[in-house]
């Protein structure tokens, strides 16, 4: 997970048969370095501008390894954002997230 983040969806928005109050996503970034955190925060800001009621959890890879958040929360990978293709990658994640609820 070099210069990229992974975005996962979890919670009622991503589960069929449940009525969502918000859209829960996990932003998983490399580590707790300033560069990694800034990139994750930038991605969070871009997603929050376009996805209504977005609730974001951010974890480093080490934190995820300790908590097993993806497994426990039954999180689904929505997409990967690379620094070199950030705008395009964010747009794909926005579209996929907004379409997900319509497919249920």
TrEMBL record:
It comes from the Bacteria. This is Polymerase nucleotidyl transferase domain-containing protein.
């Amino acid at each position: 997970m070099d210069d990229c983040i992974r975005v996962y969806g979890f919670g009622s928005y991503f589960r069929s048969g449940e009525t969502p109050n918000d859209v829960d996503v996990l932003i998983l970034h490399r580590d707790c370095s300033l560069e990694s955190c800034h990139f994750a925060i930038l991605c969070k800001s871009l997603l929050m501008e376009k996805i209504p009621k977005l609730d974001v959890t951010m974890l480093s890879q080490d934190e995820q390894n300790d908590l097993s958040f993806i497994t426990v929360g039954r999180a689904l990978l929505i997409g990967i954002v690379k620094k070199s293709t950030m705008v395009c990658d964010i747009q794909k994640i926005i579209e996929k997230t907004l379409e997900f609820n319509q497919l249920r």
